[in-house]
Every structure is written in structure tokens, then in C-alpha cells.
Amino acid sequence: ELPDACSPHRMAGLLLSSRAQLCVRHLSSASTRLLSAVSGRSNSSSESSAAPHPVHVDFRFIRENQAAVQANAAARAAKVDVAAAVNTYNDYCAVVRERCDLQALRNQLSKKIAQIKSQEEKAAAVEQVRQAKQRIQQLEAEENTLTLQLFQYSQKIPNTTHSAVPVGGPDCNRVVKLVGLKREFDFPVQNHVDLGKTLDIIDFQAAAETSGESFYYLKGAAALLELALTQYAMAKALAKGYTPVLTPDIVRTRVLEGCGFAPRNDLASQTFYLSSAHSDGCGPRCLSGTAEIPLAGLYMDQLLDEQSLPIRMVGVGRAFRVETGSGSRS
Fold first, then answer.
1. 300: number of CA atoms within 13 Å, CB side?
2. Kind of pairing between the strands at 324-325 and 328-329
3. Which has more confidence, 17 or 184?
4. Rg (Cα) of the chain, in Å, rounded?
């Protein structure tokens, strides 16, 4: 739909998946091709580091299936105007098409100017080139604005739900399969909260005073149990050829967004954002909700040699996530 002369780097943000681009747990040959298409970014400045990563949304598919996409969004309680997104995409395509045509015209005229003997014709050609350059600059500004708008729409449009998934709340859930039998106990059963208090290995009250609701101290056997489980999981992954990685807890928000962790509304956000006073010129930053995000950053914006693939890593990191429920956020 767009001219062949258009730079693939400009279109990568609309057609390629940054999750594939940033996937580090098991990068395939296909991922290498995706990385090649989006590797034209510079990450040498704070401005570029704060810019949004491309997000996988096929806007052509959305335009051709507008009603279904809007219905899917409604079923998933995502507030997004799909028609407006399609209009923005149409405007984007028109701008890119005009820019590409003008760039082709400018290049053609630039080559012919040296061969024109008539001063009058040469002056006319030079003026055409000047006007084309001026218009191209205007179109590039429009293109950047529309690209940002499409990026914002891409954060709001949810993935297509599988047809087998029931629509509705928890009451609509279906039991697909039962494995094993529910264990019966011959004594009163305690949950983990009661057990933790009884054995004095989990302290919720002190953590609530120290950090807030939903936090806890693990003490004694509980602390040793968490360390043992972490070591067990790492050993299993190491045996499968994965490289263990301890990841940073703070990441740039563009890495978070590039991995697809973007809320469709403020209430759905599970991210702890850092104050701009602590950005240190690095752009917006937040606490990582999973080790997957900083793992992605290890190979972000890089070209990978196919011979080095697959790259297998297992990360250990804290999971900083805002908990929602019962009308409260903590």
C-alpha cells in the first residue's frame, strides 16, 4: 500500500513486534530478521532513550476488521476508539506516500540539474527541489506526530481474544480439565497467612508499618525456603543451557513499553514510576515488574549474528507491581 521507496525503518514501528525484537529468552532466526529491520535507532542520547519503541499492531488488519476489533476491545473492557485509530492510520499512509513521492522527485531532479543547459530551466528545477525539500520537512513533522498517535493507540488496542475464550466475568469461566484429586486432610487446614503467623516466619504487620499494605517480611524457614526455591529453579534452567542473570530493578519506561507492558488505562497500571527528580537525564524510569523486562534490554537496539542464536537466559529480579483489588491500590 506504500511506495517501495519508503524507508523500512520508518515502517518498522507499525508492522513489527517489539516483543519479537526484544525477546531474549529464546531468539530465533526470524527474530534476527526483525532486529535487522529496526536496528536503525540511535541510543546515544537521552532524547532517543526516552522515545517509544515500536509496538506490534497491524493497522491494516484493524482497518479491514474494524467492527471485530472494536467488539474485541469492548469484550476486554478496553476503552479505545478503533475508528479514530483507523483514520489516523489512513492519514499516516497518505503522508508517507506523499513524502516518498516527493523524495523520489527531488532525487530525480537533483540528478538532472547538472545536465540542464538552459539557465531558465535549471532555475525552475532548482526551485522545484527547494519546494520539495520544504514540503518533505513538513510531511516528516506530520509523520512523527501521527506515528506517536498510532503508538498511543497501539497501547490501548488489546490482543485478539481466542474464539474459545468465554466473554464475561469470573462466572463465565469453564473448567477445561481436572488433574489429580483434591487432597483431604484429617486436621484443620491453615492458609499461608495463618501458617506464617503461627510459625513466626512471615510478618505482615511490621511490613505494613515499614512499606505499606501487601508487603511482608520472610523470616527463618520462610527466608531459607525462598532462597532454596530460587536456587532450585536456577539450577533446572542452567541444566537446560540457560545463562543465569541478576537483573537491575530500575528500567527506562521505553523498555517497559517495548516489551508490551503498557496499561490501557491509568487504573489498570501495575507500574511504580520514579519521580522525574530522580531521572538523572535518563528519561522516565520505573521499577521493573518482572526480570523479563531488563533481560530484554540486554539486546535492545542491537543487531545479532544468526550464528549466535538462540540466546537463552534466565533472570532473577524483584517483581515490583501495584496490586489492585477491593477498591484499593497498594
1. 25
2. antiparallel
3. 184
4. 26
Question: Per-residue pLDDT averaged across 78-106, rounded?
Answer: 92
Q: Which residues contact 111 (CB under 8 A, 6 or more apart)?
A: none
- pLDDT band for position 120 (cuts 50, 70, 90): confident
Output the nine-digit C-alpha cell for 196: 506464617
The amino acid that residue 115 corresponds to is: Q
If you search the block for the grid coordinates 550464528, which residue do you land on?
Answer: 307
Quote the CA–CA distance of 314 and 22 in Å, as a whole number.
Answer: 15
Which is it for the CA torsion 309, 310, 316, 317, positive or negative?
positive
Contact by Cβ (8 Å): 242, 312: yes
Three-class secondary structure of residue 103 per DSSP:
helix
Per-residue H/E/C for 174-238 = CCCCCCCCCCCCCCCCCCHHHHHHHCCCEEHHHHHHHCCCCCCEECCHHHHHHHHHHHHHHHHHH
Residue with cell 545536465: 115
CA dihedral sign, ordered 285, 290, 294, 296: negative
Q: What tens digit of pLDDT does each residue of 295-324 get?
A: 999 998 899 999 999 999 999 988 888 766
Of the candidates 138, 105, 135, the residue with the CA atom closest to the CA atom of residue 113:
105
What is d(CA 16, CA 159) in angstroms, rounded to the nearest whole number?
15
With 0.70 as the threshold, say if the pTM is over it: no
What is residue 321's predicted lDDT score, i.e. its pLDDT?
Answer: 80
Task: Kindly report, residue by residue over 62-73, the tens digit of the pLDDT.
Answer: 999 999 999 999
What number is the average pLDDT over the span 3-32?
A: 34
